[in-house]
Amino acid sequence: MISQPIEIHPVGYVRSPYKEKGDAPRQGRFSDTVSEIVIDEQYRPALWLMEGRKHLWILCWFDRADRSVLRAIPPGTSAEKGVFAIRSPDRPNPVSLCMVDLLEVKDGVLKVRGLDAFDGTPVIDIKVYSPDIDCVLNTSGKN
User: Count of CB atoms within 10 A of residue 100's CB?
Assistant: First the structure.
């Protein structure tokens, strides 16, 4: 099958204290750092009625990732795994997915806690968190 090109346009960008590799936490969810997502003017109408949400899924394009990496050793382990089996930022298509706490929406800027993206990272989409959809109840004890 021949794949067609995919066109993605950022809806905004990240303002964060993380400037280079080593600054950002391994998982943003474990951080209390506050960042901002600045939404481009043309997409600001999409923020309508977002106030009052507690959590959001932020999808970013990790533009500084190494797209040639297919295997890596996750932190705290010694076994190499394929990047589709781990959460490495280095991958063929460096789309990041991060759940954040929404603190404020004002003038097209989202103030969030728990984002692990570098300053200037393109944001490609935002989705609301829904416990009915996004929470897996694991009764079998397996992941």
Answer: 26
Domains of the chain and CATH, by start: 12-129 (2.40.30.70)
Stated pTM of the model: 0.87
Amino acid, single-letter form, for residue 76: G
Q: Are 87 and 97 in contact (CB under 8 A)?
A: no
Which residues are within 8 A (CB) of 132 and not within 5 positions of it... i.e. 6 or more apart?
none
Do residues 137 and 28 lie in contact, with contact meaning Cβ atoms separated by under 8 Å?
no
Dihedral, 128, 25, 61, 99 alpha carbons, nearest 10:
-10
Give the pair of three-digit tokens for residue 60. 């970013």
Give the chain's mean pLDDT: 90
Contact criterion met (CB below 8 Å) for 116 and 31: yes
Per DSSP, the residues of 39-105 read: E-GGGGGGGTT-TT--EEEEEEE-TTS-TT--EE--TT----EEGGGS--S-SSS-EEEEEEEEEEE
pLDDT tier at 135 (50, 70, 90 boundaries)? confident
Please say whether the beta carbons of 117 and 45 come within 8 A: no
